[in-house]
Design goal:
Elements (H helix, E strand, L loop, with lengths): L3 E5 L14 H34 L4 H8 L3 H4 L5 H34 L13 H4 L4 H4 L6 H9 L9 H18 L5 H78 L5 H13 L2 H14 L9 E5 L5 H19 L5 H4 L12 H21 L1
Parallel strand pairs: 1-2
Helix pairs in contact: 1-9, 2-9, 4-9, 8-9, 9-14, 10-12, 11-12, 12-14
Length: about 375
């Protein structure tokens, strides 16, 4: 059963109290208010995204690092970031020194291998031209030898090894290349295989020291990232508190604006009310439901879902009436796309704040309605 709308308008004397209002001034204040709200919304979204990422990143240190160091420009502005950076650089230098000590210790392993009687073929780069190995570079992608490894271990120009595992990989490559290029029955292949087995044995004895250092380094990085995370959380918590205060100030400004609009706007005339009633009967069911919701927001006792709805226009507040006026105007314009709204708009009675576009007025009314509803609930 469809709803039946009954519009009641009391034939009271028209009140043509047309107070002049500075529409441009109100319009500028509205624009400033919405600009401020837009900026606040952006900051709220940033805070929400930060805590969402922080929640997801709790699965592991790698995720934390990816989340909290993704945007370095933003992190630089976090209070305590400079201290964090200095501490991180200090720990990085200490860790690098520990790794250098490990690599020096690993040098003894290399000396044992290179001093073996079968190590001589691997001490210098392969002389491809002298040996006539025309297909060498077709088979071997990355040549390696012990003199190159030694040179890189002693380098001081930034090309030196940073981790002992890099040295291990190059030593393994020396023997792997020899076994790959030379036939498995050749002497060089057999020498490389024997030395690689000896090297792997010694490496396995050395691995515990390497893994211990890697674990220590991971723990230090995780601790540093946790400190940065806490600093970020504290900074965003402060931002949230500041935003709460600014939102409260905006709400108060909105209340002041409401008072200004109410004082400066003329009261709705009986003809305006009648035209609103006529316009309501022309709305499609969906728009009519939205219009009745507008009434419900200001009048919680109003039942908009009954089979027969009696809407007393005179019982509605001025803000509700103005909101209805602009809603039905836009709704009917969307339905007909013609001048059928002329009777409703009543251009003879010009709104004192006509310079404020309908969309802005609707937004103000929406905001005012929310504020009024909150105030009623608190009361």
């Amino acid at each position: 059963m469809e709803e039946e709308l009954i519009i009641c308008v009391d034939a009271k004397t028209e009140d043509n109290n047309n107070n002049n209002a500075d529409g441009d001034d109100i319009g500028h204040k509205v624009d400033d208010l919405f600009t401020k709200v837009d900026k606040l919304e952006q900051r709220v979204n940033e805070i929400e995204q930060f805590f969402l990422n922080a929640s997801k990143a709790q699965s592991g240190s790698a995720s934390v690092k990816s989340s909290f160091l993704k945007d370095k420009d933003k992190i630089k502005h976090v209070p305590g970031y400079k201290k964090y950076q200095q501490e991180a650089e200090r720990k990085e230098a200490v860790a690098a020194k520990r790794m250098q000590d490990i690599m020096r210790q690993f040098g003894s392993v290399l000396r044992q291998i290179t001093q073996h009687k079968w190590a001589w073929p691997f001490m210098q780069p392969v002389d491809v031209e002298a040996l006539g190995l025309r297909d060498y570079y077709e088979v071997i992608d990355r040549p390696m030898d012990f003199s190159t490894i030694k040179h890189q271990m002693e380098a001081k120009d930034g090309t030196e090894y940073k981790h002992v595992r890099d040295i291990y990989s190059d030593v393994w490559l020396v023997f792997s290349n020899a076994m790959k290029y030379n036939d498995d029955k050749s002497d060089v292949h057999g020498m490389a295989k024997t030395l690689l087995e000896k090297f792997e044995e010694k490496w396995l004895q050395f691995v515990p020291r390497v893994t211990e250092e890697e674990k220590r380094r991971e723990e230090e990085e995780a601790e540093a990232l946790l400190s940065l995370q806490r600093a970020q959380e504290a900074a965003h918590a402060k931002m949230a508190r500041d935003l709460s205060n600014k939102l409260y100030e905006t709400d108060m400004r909105l209340e002041e604006l409401r008072e200004i609009v109410v004082k400066k706007c003329r009261k709705m005339s009986i003809k305006d009310k009648r035209n609103i009633g006529i316009a309501l009967t022309r709305l499609c069911p969906e728009d009519l439901s939205k219009a009745l919701d507008i009434v419900t927001r200001h009048n919680l006792s109003f039942q908009s879902t009954a089979a027969e709805i009696a809407l007393d226009i005179d019982a509605q507040s001025e803000s509700t009436l103005w909101r209805l006026k602009y809603f039905v105007k836009d709704a009917l314009y969307g339905q007909s796309k013609n001048d059928a709204l002329c009777e409703v708009s009543n251009e003879a009675n010009v709104n004192p704040i006509k310079n404020v576009v309908s969309k802005r007025k609707m937004q103000i009314c929406n905001a005012l309605a929310k504020t009024a509803k909150k105030r009623n609930q608190k009361g």
